[in-house]
Amino acid sequence: MAVQFNMDPKKCPMPSQDPQVRNHNFDEVALGYTKEMAVGEAKRCLNCKNKPCVNGCPVGIDIPGFISKVAAEDFEGAYQVLSASSSLPAVCGRVCPQETQCEGVCTRGIKGESVGIGRLERFVADWHRENVHTDPQTPVFNGHKVAVIGAGPSGLTCAGDLAKAGYKVTIYEALHVAGGVLMYGIPEFRLPKDIVQTEIEGLKKLGVDIETNMVMGKVLTIDELMGEYGYEAVYVASGAGLPRFMNIPGEGLKGVYSANEYLTRTNLMKAYRPDSKTPIKKSKAVAVVGGGNVAMDAARCALRLGAETVYIVYRRGMEELPARREEVEHAQEEGIVFKLLCNPVHIDGDENGNVKDITCIRMELGEPDASGRRRPVEVPGSEFTLEVDTVIMALGTSPNPLIRSTTPGLETNKHGCIVTNGDDGLTSREGVYAGGDAVTGAATVILAMGAGKHAAKAIDEYIKGKNA
Ligand SMILES: Cc1cc2nc3c(=O)[nH]c(=O)nc-3n(C[C@H](O)[C@H](O)[C@H](O)COP(=O)(O)OP(=O)(O)OC[C@H]3O[C@@H](n4cnc5c(N)ncnc54)[C@H](O)[C@@H]3O)c2cc1C
Question: What is the pTM of this model?
Answer without folding.
Answer: 0.94
